[in-house]
Amino acid sequence: VPGFFDGWPVAEPSQRNGFAHNRINRQSEQRSADVLDRALADPAARFYLFAGDKALVRPAVEPPDPLFTLTEAEALGADRAAIVLLGWNDAAPRLAVFVGADADLEPLAIEARDLRGLVNQAVLQPPDLGALAQARSLLFWHDRHGFCARCGAATVIVEGGVRRDCPACGTQHFPRTDPVVIMLAIDGDNCLLGRSQRFASGWYSCLAGFVEPGETFEAAVRREIGEEAGIRIGRVRYHASQPWPFPSMLMIGCHAEAVSRDIVIDRTELEDARWFPRDEVRQMLARTHPDGLATPPPFAIASELMRSWVEAGAG
Amino acid sequence: VPGFFDGWPVAEPSQRNGFAHNRINRQSEQRSADVLDRALADPAARFYLFAGDKALVRPAVEPPDPLFTLTEAEALGADRAAIVLLGWNDAAPRLAVFVGADADLEPLAIEARDLRGLVNQAVLQPPDLGALAQARSLLFWHDRHGFCARCGAATVIVEGGVRRDCPACGTQHFPRTDPVVIMLAIDGDNCLLGRSQRFASGWYSCLAGFVEPGETFEAAVRREIGEEAGIRIGRVRYHASQPWPFPSMLMIGCHAEAVSRDIVIDRTELEDARWFPRDEVRQMLARTHPDGLATPPPFAIASELMRSWVEAGAG
C-alpha cells in the first residue's frame, strides 16, 4: 500500500537554506510575566548581541563564538529595558540585545559581522545562525515599534518580547513576519531571471515580492511575475521556505510554469530580466560562467530554487 | 521526456478554498499620489462597504450585489478620508470603506452579513468574495494603524491605502499579513484533530498557529503540533494556502507525518485533541457522523486538508 508521504524527502528542501536550523525553544505561549527576570538570574543565560545591523562574534576562538554573558552585554552598553528573550537552548536561556553605539569591540577581540557574511562563510554553527536570524528580526521590530499604532501612546515590552502592550488603550502588538513570494518561472529548458539596480555586478536572481492582503501565495506568484516581467503563469509549485531577517521576511519559494515568452520589464523594479538556458544557470551557480554572471550565494533560497531545477534535468 | 511540472494540477488546491478568487488588479507599485482622486472621479467606481465586521449586500437582486456607488456610501455615513482603493476590475475602480455606525440599512433593502456566512452560502460570486476578503483586511488594518509605531505621531493614508506615511519621522508603514500554519498530522489511517473552547459544539479541526520570526514554515508546523498536542513530526508537505481576513492572515496548509502517538494536550489552547480514523473524518466532512461531530465548512482550508487526505485513500 503506498503511503501518503511516499517520495517526500525526510529533510524538506527548506533545510538547505541559510537560517533554517534554529533550535531555540521559544515557549511563546507559556511565558509568565516574570519570565525575563528569571531568565536573567539564570547563570546559564547567554546573549546574541547586535551592533546596529551587525552580529557580534569572537572570531578567534574555535568554533567562533556568538554568545555573551549579561555582564559582557552591559559592559558594551546594552540597554536592559530592550532585552529580548528568544527562548531556551535545552534549559539555558538565550537572549538578544543591541550593544551601545559607541561600544569599543577591538580591544576585546570581538568583531561586528553582517549576518549574510556569517551564513555565507559558514563561520558559525547552523543553530546559532538560526537563532541570530530570530534575534535580528525581533530586535529590529521592537526598536521600530515603541508606540501604539492604534492610539500613539508608548508601549511596553512584555513576556520577554513576545508582545508589546499599550497601557493607554490596551491593544496587544505582536512582532510581524512579512510573507514574500520568490519564484523561478520556467519555460521548458529556460528559466526567467532578473536583476535589480541594487544587485552586485553580474548577479541575476529569481523575481520576488510581498504577498498582499487577500491573496493565496500562488496568486501572488502570478501577479508578481506579471507585474515585473509581463510573463503569464500556469501551474505554481511550492518548493521551500526561508526566514529572511532583513528585517523580518518569510520567503516562500516556488517554481512557476511560464505560459508566455515575451518579457516586458518593469524598469522601476528591474534593470534587466531574461531567459537563461539550464546550462548557463548551472555555470552561474558554479561561478564558472564565461561572462562572470552569477546567482546569489547557496544560502539564499533563490539559489536553491535554481539548483533544484537545474538538477531535475529534463525541462 | 518527463516535464518538471508533470503530475501537478492546472488549478492548485488553494483554488478550492474560500476567498481564493480575487481578480482585482491592485497596481500597488504603479500608483500615483492622486490615484484615489482619479478613481473617485471615475463613474465606473464601485465600493465594497462594511458595517463594522460585516459586509453590505443587496440580497434581493439576482445575483446578490455587494457593490455600491460613492453617493450610496456617503449617504450611509462613509468617511471619505478612510476610503481604500483596492484596485481595478478591468478598468473599473474598486474601493472599500466603512459605513457609519448608525447607518439604517433596512429601508434600503441592504443587509450587513458576516463574510464567513457569505462564503459558506455561496451567495456571491467568487471574485467578489476574494475582493471582500482583501477589503476587510485592509479596512481593519487602516482602522487600527492610525499612528506611527516608531514615533507615535498620526499617520496619513497614501496612494489609496497601499501605505501609511508618518509626516513626523518619515517612516512608511505597509499593511501586514500574518502567516499562520494550519496542519493535519497523520499517523497511518488516523489523523490528529483538536477543538478549542471557541468552536461550535461538536466541531473538530486541524491545529494551527502563527509562524514566528526566524522560522521556516515546516519548522513552525513541527513546533505548533509539539506545543499543542505533544506529537513529534517527521515529514511536512505543503498543500494549499488561503487568505483569511480575520483580520489579515495567510493560512499555510500542510500535511504532517506524525512519528509519535501519545497526545499531551495544551489545555490553554485546546479543549480536546485526539486521533480520528479516516472513515470517521469522512463522516464528519459529510455531516453524517453518528455523534454529530463535524469539521469546519468546505470553504475553510482545514476542511480541504482533511478532504484531500481522506480522498487519497491509503494511509
Report what the structure shows.
The structure is a homodimer of 315-residue chains. Chain A is an alpha+beta fold and 315 residues long. Helices cover 22% and strands 26% of the residues of chain A. The first copy, chain A, has helices at 35-40, 70-75, 115-120, 126-143, 217-229, 278-286, 301-312, and strands spanning 46-51, 54-57, 84-89, 92-98, 111-113, 156-158, 163-165, 172-173, 178-187, 190-195, 207-210, 233-244, 249-258, 272-277. In chain A, the strands form three sheets. In chain A, strands 9, 10, 11, 12, 13 and 14 form a six-stranded mixed sheet that branches. A five-stranded mixed sheet of chain A has the order 3-4-1-2-5. A three-stranded antiparallel sheet of chain A has the order 6-7-8, with no helix packed on it. The longest helix of chain A is centred in the middle third of the chain and has 18 residues, at 126-143.
Feature tags:
7 helices, homodimer, alpha+beta, 315 residues
Q: What is the CA–CA distance across the termini of chain A? A: 31 Å
Largest sheet of chain A: 6 strands, mixed
- Give the SSE order of chain A as H and E letters: HEEHEEEHHEEEEEEHEEEHH
What does the oligomeric state look like here? homodimer
Largest interface in this structure: A-B, 82 and 81 residues
The geometry of chain A reads as: globular
